[in-house]
Structures are given as C-alpha cells and as structure tokens.
Design brief:
It is built from 21 helices and 7 strands. Among the domains are: 1-133, Tetratricopeptide repeat domain (Serine Threonine Protein Phosphatase 5, Tetratricopeptide repeat), CATH 1.25.40; 310-392; 399-549, Heat Shock Protein 90. The N and C termini lie far apart (91 Å). The protein is elongated, with a radius of gyration of 31 Å. The strands form 2 sheets. The protein has a 5-stranded mixed β-sheet with strand order 2-4-5-7-6, covered by helices on one side. Strands 1-3 form a two-stranded antiparallel ribbon. The protein is of the alpha+beta class and 555 residues long.
Length: 555
Amino acid sequence: MKSEIEILQKRFDEEKDISKKVDFALKISSHHRFLSREDKAINFIKTVLDQILETNYEIGIAKLYKEISLIHYSKLELDKALDFGFQALSIFKRLKEDIKISETMCNIGVYYNALNLPEKAKEYFLQSLKYYPENIATLNNLGEHFAKCEDNEEAIRYFQETIRIAKEQNKNIDLAYALKSLGELYIDLKQNKKAIDYFEQALQILTIQKDSNAEAFILIGLSHSYINEKKPEKALTFSLKALQIAEEINNNEIFWFCYGNLAKVYENLEDYNNAYKYLQLSLKLHEQMYSEKIAHRIAKLEAAYEMEKKELETKQLLEKNARLATIGVMAAGITHEINQPLNSIVINSDGILFKDDRDKVLPEGYRQSVEKIFKSAQRIDEIVKHMRTYWNSGDDLIKNKSLSINECIIDALSFITQQIRSHGIELQTSYTSQNPFISGNQVHIEQIIINLITNSIHALDRSERKTKKIKVKTELEKDNVILHIEDNGIGLTINDGRDIFDPFYSTKNPDEGMGLGLAIVKNYITQMNGEILFENKESMGVAFKITLPILKGEQ
C-alpha cells in the first residue's frame, strides 16, 4: 500500500498546471517536516524551486521560499529561516497577498522569539494582524508575548479570541495550542490545578487529531505544573514522554524545551548529575541557535529587507503620483466638457424663471422645481471652479494669502459633508465669532481638514457605536486660532513607538492608504508656522488640536 507521500509525489509528477504543482510540492515538504525529515524536505523543495524560477511564477516562488524558511526553523537555523522569510515577504508584499503576508510576518515573529528578541517579535505579530486580523497563530503568539510581559489581562484576551476563532473555523490543532498557552499562563499565575485542566483539555483534542509537536509541548506544560505542585516524580513521567516524542520526530525545538524542563525536574528530585547534564545539552542547543556570527548575519538581513521595503514603498508612491497626475489631466478635460451642458442648464433655467416672473407661465408648484434645478446647477459650477485650484500651477498655488479660517473650514466641509452623512455620522460644528484671519494657502488648509475628517470616517466605520460623531470647532487662544477636529471612533492602536506623522506610518488596513496623509498635514501646518497635537483614547476616539498664528490687525 502506497504512503501518503508516495501518492502526493505521483500526483506532483503527473501535474501540468504550475500552481497545482507548487501546492503538491508544499504538501510533500510539509509531510517530510512533520516526520522530521528536514534534509529530504529542503532538497526536494530546492529542486522544485529551480524549476519554478525558470517560469518566473512569483507567487509560487514566494510560497516555496516560505516553506524553506520553515524547514530551516525546524532545524533551528534561524538566520537562514529569516533570510528566506524576508525573501518570501518581499514578494508577497509586491503581489499584495495579504493573508500570505500575515502568515509570513507571524513566522518571522516566531523566529525572533526563538532568538530571545520579544519586542522585535511583537512588532511583526502586530503587523501580521493588520493584514489578516483573524490569523489564529498570530493571536496566540501575541497572547504568549503579553503573558511573558506579565500583562495577564491582555494575554487572556488574545488567547480567548484565538479559542473563539479556532472553534468557529473548526481548527482543532490551533484550539489545542491555545488551550496549552492558557495552561502555561496559569502556571505563571501559580494556579496549577487550572493549568492542568487546560493541558488535559488540549490533550483530549489531540486524541481526535494527532499532532506530535503540540502533544510534546502540552506534556512539558503538565510537567511544569506538577513541579509546582511538588510532585517531581509525576513531572518526570510527562517530561520523559515529551523527550520520547522529540526523539521520534527528531525536532530540535522540542529537544531544547525538553532539556531545560528535565534539568528543572532533576533539580527538584535532587539528582544534580542529571540536572547538570540536561542543562548543558540545553545550553549547547542555544549556542547553536544564536552566536556572534549569526547575530551579524541577521542584522544584515534586516537592513537588506528594510531597504527593499523602502524601495517598494517609493515605487508605489511614484506610481500613485503618476496616476494622480493622469487623473488631474483627465479631470481638467472633464470639467471643460461639463461646463457646456452646465451653462445650458443654468441659462435655460434662469430664462424660465425670468419669464415666469414677468408672464407667470409656470403651472402652480413647478417654479419651486425649476429654482432647485437652477441652484443645483450653480452649485455644480462653484464646485468645478473650486476643483480647478487643485491642478492649476503657478504662484497662486504656492503663495500664502490672508484667509478667514472659518470660511476655509466651511468650504472644505462643503466637499465632504454629504459623505459624512452617508456614513451615518453626525457632524457638529462650532466657530469662534471673532472670525480670525491667518496667513495660509486655501487648498492646503482644505486638504488638512479633508484628510483628518476622512481618517475619522474610516475610524467610525470600524466602530460599533450607535451614535457616531465628528466635531469641528475653532476658538481663540491669545495670538492663535485653535482648530479642533475629533471623533468618537476606535482610536489609534499605537504599539511600535513611531510617530503617527511619519511618512508611510499607517494604522489602517493596507488598502485604505499609504500612510502619507498625516505626514502631508503636518508639513502644511509647519509651513504656516503652526503646530498639530493629538490626544488618543484607544476605543474612545482621537482629538486633533491645530494651532495657527493669527494675522495681526485682521480679526
């Protein structure tokens, strides 16, 4: 009877479709990895990769790089794992494969955890969720990160979310890992009975769907629990079972955890000879994973990846600017074409109203409809004329002028008020009665307001609040006018210590923007000798405060 690998190999050999061929190759490699045949897996995948490289099938190449990365991780060759992980990530980003980007970022986070670089790991886990919020592996890894940081409330939240999604998607192995992670958390909280209960639930799941890796880690968790319960003999039983699994599948990661655990068990049994022996084995494996040479190589890989990422972002920005320039040319042409029929509507509706004033030619009730047509056509004409300023070049676009800040805000809101209402958002405005003037560029000021309000709309779209609000307010403060723009949306999730005004920084989904809006806003405000600050209350909204100097003698 043929084994599953032999069946897959036959289908791989017969398959002509390149996409399906890659998928069969990944399944074969995954089976080899599961059986700890890493050398067979990597030789096979590299042979396939050589064939695929000739076809330039990018998504297939990226998938194979990702698999090679995982094989190297199984061998605890972390620098090589990162190398292929970064190569896969670059291609997935170029192809905008969000789920694959998320999976690869999660893997890279795991590698950094193994290198004992938890903050670097956390950075990749959080980026992973931006691309795919329901990535179970990422959620569980974040739970483990916060557990290590002793932020137990946050850890439990992530573990419970993992369990919820795993149950919904009927993913038993992921559910077992999440229960294992909760058990490990309760070990740290000295609630050993609760920990043992979670580990046993996880083992029960694995009787239905076998996973040697998960089983080994659960057994190590049970061993820890019984050490804490002062039952080292029982702890030793579970440790030896885990070691047996590590030997069966020849998995270095499990060996590493087993050795450390056995050192602790034998220390509690006062068998210091065996305790020392397993501690030495654990240290030897750790040295294999992390050395000066490997650290230097990893730093070079990170620098190369960051450079490639910036190049991709710059290329995307240039492409976007080219599209915007084309749209500007098209828009200018379209407005010219609109003007002809628009003028006809204005002239004819105005003529009808003039004749009705004199001869009363309109049936009762019709005059109001014609007046609406006339006013709407005038409004369209005003918008078209105003939009021309966005693509007209020359001194008028560059130079600052004396402007009423209140009138600039009203003009900007006229473009976006209908959009705000269509999203079910209430707009509240309040203007200072003194009507202060500032030195600025009207187009820039309108862009500032539209950018900030668009961000608020996106935040409120993701909010579950019944009443959604955006508030716009101006007030005087000494020699300055203060513009407040705030919402009651989801707030900003700021976790990586960067400034939200940095170019390419974004808390939105990748398809909602490139992270340039706030950088442009700050640049314009700085040009006007102003200042922008923000107050963020996560899950309660964001408030921006813009301070601009008032022109002397013009209030």
